[in-house]
Amino acid sequence: MSLRPGDALAEFVIDSVSAAAMKDWAVFLADPNPIHLDPAVVKAKGLGDKVINQGPANVAYVINMLLLAVPGAAIAALDAKFLDNAYAGDRLIAGGSVTALTAAQVDCDIWVRAEGRGQIISGTATLTLPHA
Description:
By secondary structure, this protein is an alpha+beta fold. The chain has a domain at about 10-15 and about 55-130: Hotdog Thioesterase (Thiol Ester Dehydrase, Chain A, Roll), CATH 3.10.129. Helix content is about 25%, strand content about 35%.
C-alpha cells in the first residue's frame, strides 16, 4: 500500500443505522438512555422522531474505516468531535484523508457523514504502521 498526504481513505458505509442494534449497544455500554430505545422520548425532547444511535457506535464506524483503509495499522490516537446525531435509518459514510505520513505512522483527518444532512463527526486519528 502506498499512501501520501492528501490521499482519501477508503470509505466505510453503513447503509441503514439499525434501531435493533441500538438495543444491543445499550446493553454493551450499560446505557439505558431512552433516546436510543424509544422514538416517543426522542420526539418529546424535540430531537426528531427516530431513535438516536449511541456515540460510541458512530466512533466504531470510524475505527472500522481506519483499520480497513490501512490494513495492519494500530490506532494510536483518535479524537472525535460530535457535530450531530445519527438516527435509525440514516445512511452513514465514514471516511478521511491522510494529512501526514512517516515511516512509522499516518496522521489523518476523519469524518462521518449522514447522507442528506452532512457531517455528524469530525476529528483526527494517528495510526501506527506495522513494521515490515
